Give the backbone structure.
Amino acid sequence: DTEVTQTPKHLVMGMTNKKSLKCEQHMGHRAMYWYKQKAKKPPELMFVYSYEKLSINESVPSRFSPECPNSSLLNLHLHALQPEDSALYLCASSQDQQGAYNEQFFGPGTRLTVL
Amino acid sequence: GENVEQHPSTLSVQEGDSAVIKCTYSDSASNYFPWYKQELGKRPQLIIDIRSNVGEKKDQRIAVTLNKTAKHFSLHITETQPEDSAVYFCAASRRYRTSGTYKYIFGTGTRLKVLA
């Protein structure tokens, strides 16, 4: 299996809702990433997990809460989001994060709309 | 600061012509430079990459060149086809100071249109 999968594909939520995005990979990768991508913009790094520990948090608001239950799974818990948080949320994984030459494999993304 | 500039932002070429996209990075410690292609509504996919100890790399119709002194790298697509139409992002991998791990800094993207 050489793919990163994400669920759901689309999500519409109100500002008071709590929802979660899920990401899974079975490539044995030990680094997993969450990116946010607005239309016509590059992916913007949010969080990185390395060996199931949070290694990078790019000063993301606390209404986004990441979780890495095991080496294959990555979640992003959402609470009290704002309409400006509407975007494509991409998950990615790589062999690890210690080497400089690590290709990142991206999932198809979750298209999030906050009403 | 960390920054990757990418030009042009849009590029239209006739089918069969070549396309060139250029990126400039600011951190001299960057040592890995991947290029991703993102079709509309799809995930970014790696199309070619280059390490800092190499000046050029080619894979069929796609090539990447790197000039470390000038801190710029370029993507070259020859004999373009309509299916090459997409947004292309360059990136530079740099070491994150506090944790010692690596992350990508992405360029702003180039929308390539290949006209049939």
Residues 1 and 26 of chain A are 6 Å apart (CA to CA). The radius of gyration of chain A is 13 Å.
